[in-house]
Specification:
Number of helices: 3
Shape: globular
Helix content: 25-40%
Bound molecules: FE2/S2 (inorganic) cluster
Order of helices and strands: EEHHH
Strand content: under 5%
Distance between the termini: 26 Å
Length: 121
């Protein structure tokens, strides 16, 4: 996704605007990104992606979404018609892929406790 592509299609908020907002305002929780032109307050399709961008920034990584705008819009259209996500939203919200985020935290031992809880809020 390029900087000028829209992450929030409801309110036409570009990746550039959202990334600049996150970098400038340092929102403590992803929901505060809604203060950036209402991003995420429409159909809510983009919310997992906003969370993803927030998490990337918190990790000191470049804020990017590895999806083409065409594919992104196609998935949103499907989401809006079925109410279901494809499971590849690129966020931690409902995705089924087991990404190894946080593996560099050097945790030892507690693997049997199950999945790490996403940090919310
Ligand atoms: S795409 Fe962002 S709220 Fe609908």
């Amino acid at each position: 996704m390029d900087p000028d592509d829209h992450v929030c299609l409801c309110f036409r908020v570009s990746l550039r605007k959202i990334a600049a907002f996150i970098a400038r305002e340092e929102p403590r929780v992803p929901s505060q990104i809604s203060e950036c032109l209402g991003a995420g307050t429409g159909c809510q399709w983009c919310v997992p992606f906003l969370k993803r961008l927030h998490a990337l920034h918190a990790e000191g990584k470049p804020m990017d979404l590895p999806v083409s705008p065409e594919e992104y819009a196609r998935r949103r259209a499907r989401y809006r018609s079925t109410g279901e996500r494809a499971g590849d939203a690129g966020g931690d919200d409902g995705g089924q892929e087991g990404r190894d985020e946080g593996r560099d935290e050097g945790r030892e031992g507690g693997r049997e406790g199950g999945r790490a809880q996403p940090t919310e809020g």
